Amino acid sequence: MISQVPALEQPGLGDFFPPAFAFEGTIFEMNRLVLVRLIATAALVIIYAVGASRARLVPSKGQSILEGAIVFIRDKVAIETLGEKNGRRYAPILTVIFLGVFFMNITGVIPGLNIAASSVVAVPLVFAVLSYIVFIAAGIKQLGAGTFFKNQLFPPGVPWPLYVLLTPIELLSTFIIRPATLTIRLLANMLAGHLMLALTFFGTHFLFFHAAGALKGVGVLTFAGSLAITAFEIFVSGLQAFIFAILTAVYIKTSIETH
After folding, report:
1. Residue 219's Cα: distance from chain center in Å?
2. In the prediction, which pLDDT does 3 show?
3. What is the pLDDT of residue 1?
């Protein structure tokens, strides 16, 4: 039996389109998601600014964690993918992408924020455009505009009649589909994660406070599930940031190398 339930705010797509609470109708319009993005950005800047200002030769635990993230991206993503020279050259932008995506993702499991800033298309699109610009800029800087676009659209070693078919495919896949897939991959993962978290916590609340009899016991299972999904979302937040950074590194590699 289930007791009469008062109106509860159920999770759904409306979570991703919150109403404005300030500057409505202007380019500075503020809603809950915009606020979450600003908080995530401020947290990233403040954490690393404070960490840098307190850096010591013998690092503290906090300094080790902050430095560890930077060293990991430099060594395991940038240098391993691009080599020593180019890896160190592009490590800063790859680190910005990794940390930016991670901080935008992790807000989904922070109490009071409860939604990933990257679960709406604007944030994934911004990072995809940044990755796309770095990919093109790196290639033009290394090879020159003519050679870069020639290599991307007319891969060497292919019989020239095949370019009639191959060049439009390369144009579509490299310059149109690539940024779209970067955007959709991150967006879909974080959107699905938010819905899973919201539904399990909503179900737990419903069962604990509004179900009758033995059904309340089921809430223990949904609560355990919500904790498991929370842990999984923390993992996914880091994994998606890593994937975004390493894909950007791979794209840079394809843009700066001649074939």
Report:
1. 31
2. 46
3. 43
3-state DSSP call for residue 236?
Answer: helix
Q: How far apart are CA 124 and CA 119, in angstroms?
A: 8
CA–CA separation, 181 vs 125, rounded Å?
10
Calpha distance 76→15 (Å, rounded): 36
Return the structure tokens found at 204: 């737990």
Closest CA to 237 of 178, 190, 191: 190
DSSP one-letter code for 22: E
Predicted confidence (pLDDT) per residue in 64-94, tens digit = 999 999 999 999 999 999 999 999 999 999 9
Quick one: tokens of 125? 């699109």
Which residue, among 119, 146, 136, has the nearest Cα to 179 in the 3D structure? 136
d(CA 21, CA 37): 15
What CA–CA distance (Å, rounded) separates 103 from 159? 47
Q: What is the mean pLDDT of residues 206-217?
A: 76
Model confidence, pTM: 0.89
**What one-character-per-residue DSSP string does 168-196 give?**
HHHHHIIIIIHHHHHHHHHHHHHHHHHHH
* Residue 218 in tokens: 């089921």
